[in-house]
Specification:
The chain is of the alpha/beta class and 175 residues long. It has a single domain, classed as UDP N-Acetylglucosamine Acyltransferase, domain 1 (3 Solenoid). Helix content is 27%, strand content 23%. A hairpin with a 4-residue loop joins strand 13 and strand 14. The longest helix has 14 residues. The termini are far apart.
């Protein structure tokens, strides 16, 4: 039976959408989530995600610490240990491109995580984090204020109209 489940997971990996794949392997998540990754670690059933969560591509959820292999080799009484922890993500969270979320991480509500970050520990609600390791950058309100002059109303228009607007906003430089 385990072999069949493994085959099904591999098939699912190739043919299911990221959201359907996450559901298939046991990730618990709320409504209006959009995953652009299929890297949910070795214990995906220990990942809990709230509502309105989006990931960019290549986000990695890691809830198993393979480093304990060194301890298994050093200490006879630890030959069969694992180090596994849950990952819990709140509501209304954006996780940027190439982010790695490590075991035991808890992310609050209304959080933005910048591209390439490595996240561990607890991230407070209403905040922006980025870096390796991820550090607090600013509040959501400060992020809004910093970027207010750069916002464009282009998220729900078709790609042709969007390109026209962007070419007007960002004209080619004449060199």
């Amino acid at each position: 039976m385990l072999k069949i489940n493994g085959i099904l997971k591999n098939l699912g990996y190739k043919f299911l959408s990221p959201n359907n794949y996450a559901r298939f392997i046991g990730v618990k998540f709320g409504t209006n989530c959009k995953f652009r990754t299929k890297y949910f670690g070795t214990e995906p059933y220990l990942i809990e995600i709230g509502d309105n969560v989006q990931t960019a591509m290549n986000v990695y959820f890691i809830n198993h610490d393979g480093g304990v292999g060194v301890l298994r080799n050093l200490y006879k009484d630890l030959k069969k240990i694992d180090l596994i922890k849950k990952i819990v993500i709140g509501n209304n969270v954006f996780i940027g491109f190439n982010v790695t979320i490590l075991l035991g991480t808890k992310i609050g509500d209304n959080v933005i995580i910048g591209a390439g970050s490595v996240v561990r520990g607890e991230l407070n609600s209403n905040s922006v984090y980025a870096g390796v390791p991820a550090k607090y950058i600013c509040s959501i309100d400060e992020y809004k204020e910093k970027n207010n002059n750069f916002f464009l109303n282009t998220s729900s228009i078709d790609s042709v109209k969007k390109e026209k607007i962007l070419r007007e906003v960002f004209p080619e430089s004449s060199s």
